[in-house]
C-alpha cells in the first residue's frame, strides 16, 4: 500500500524469520528512495521519499511457493505485477530504469547540475544523469526537477533534488 512500504518491509522480514528462517530476506526486498530537501515554515529539512510510491521489489533467482505465500500473507500486500495470477519479473526498459536508480544505492542522493547560458539544466552526476530527456519541469528555487517515469506502462512524475554547481571562471 502506498505510504506503508516501510511497515510492510518490517512485517515481511519478521514473517521470513518465522516461516523460513534459513532464507536471508534482508537484501531481497528493495525500496528505492530519493533524498529531498523540504522547506516547511522557513526551515529546511532532509526527507526520504520513494522513487516508485507503492512499489517494493523482490530480488531472487526464483519465486518459490514458500516465498510467494510469505510475501502475499504479509499485511499491506496488494498484488504482484502484472497480476497475482501472472507474476512477471521486471524486464526491458522497466528493469533498466530500476537498475539505473539502484546503481546509486537504495537511497539516491541529489544530482549535481549546472545551467548553460540558455538556462537549460545540464546534469553533471547523480541519479538524474541520463534522464535529461525526461525532465518536464525545473524549479531552481526549490532545487528540484520533475522527471517523467513509467513502470509497467503506468506513467507518473517524481521530483528529484539537485545541487547547483556554479561555473568557476578563470581570471588569468
Query: Please, how many domains?
Result: 1
Major sheet characteristics: 5 strands, mixed
Strand sequence of the main sheet, in spatial order?
7-6-10-9-8
Structural class determined from secondary elements: alpha+beta
> How many H/I helical runs?
3
Q: How large is the radius of gyration?
A: 19 Å
Fraction of residues in helix: 10-25%
Low-confidence stretches: 168-172
The H-and-E topology, N to C, reads as: HEEEEHHEEEEEE
Task: Categorize the overall geometry.
Answer: elongated
| Overall pLDDT confidence | 88
Which percent range describes the beta-strand content? 25-35%
In whole angstroms, how far apart are the ends?
58 Å
Q: Please report the total strand number as a whole number.
A: 10
Quick summary of this structure?
The chain has 172 residues and is an alpha+beta fold.
Tags for this entry?
single chain; 172 residues; alpha+beta; disordered C terminus
Please explain how this structure is put together.
By secondary structure, the chain is α+β, with helices and mostly antiparallel strands. It has one domain. Helix content is 20%, strand content 33%. It contains three helices and ten strands. It has helices at residues 5-19, 65-73, 92-102; strands spanning 29-30, 33-40, 43-50, 57-58, 107-108, 111-115, 121-125, 135-139, 144-151, 154-164. It has a five-stranded mixed β-sheet, with helices on one face. Helix 1 (5-19) packs across helix 2. The chain starts with a helix and ends in an 8-residue tail after the last strand. Residues 168-172 have low confidence and may be disordered.
Amino acid at each position: 500500500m502506498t505510504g506503508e512500504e516501510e511497515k510492510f518491509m518490517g512485517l515481511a522480514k519478521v514473517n521470513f524469520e518465522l516461516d523460513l528462517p534459513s532464507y536471508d530476506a534482508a537484501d531481497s526486498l528493495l525500496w528505492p528512495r530519493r533524498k529531498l530537501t523540504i522547506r516547511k515554515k522557513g526551515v529546511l529539512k532532509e526527507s526520504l521519499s520513494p522513487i516508485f510510491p507503492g512499489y517494493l521489489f523482490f530480488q531472487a533467482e526464483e519465486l518459490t511457493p514458500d516465498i510467494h505465500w510469505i510475501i502475499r500473507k504479509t499485511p499491506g500486500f496488494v498484488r504482484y505485477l502484472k497480476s497475482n495470477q501472472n507474476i512477471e519479473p521486471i524486464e526491458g526498459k522497466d528493469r533498466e530504469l530500476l537498475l539505473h536508480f539502484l546503481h546509486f544505492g537504495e537511497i539516491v542522493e541529489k544530482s549535481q547540475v549546472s545551467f548553460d547560458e540558455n538556462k537549460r539544466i545540464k546534469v553533471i552526476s547523480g541519479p538524474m544523469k541520463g534522464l535529461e530527456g525526461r525532465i518536464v519541469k525545473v524549479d531552481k528555487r526549490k532545487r528540484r526537477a520533475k522527471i517523467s517515469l513509467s513502470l509497467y506502462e503506468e506513467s507518473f512524475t517524481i521530483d528529484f533534488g539537485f545541487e547547483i554547481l556554479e561555473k568557476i571562471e578563470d581570471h588569468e
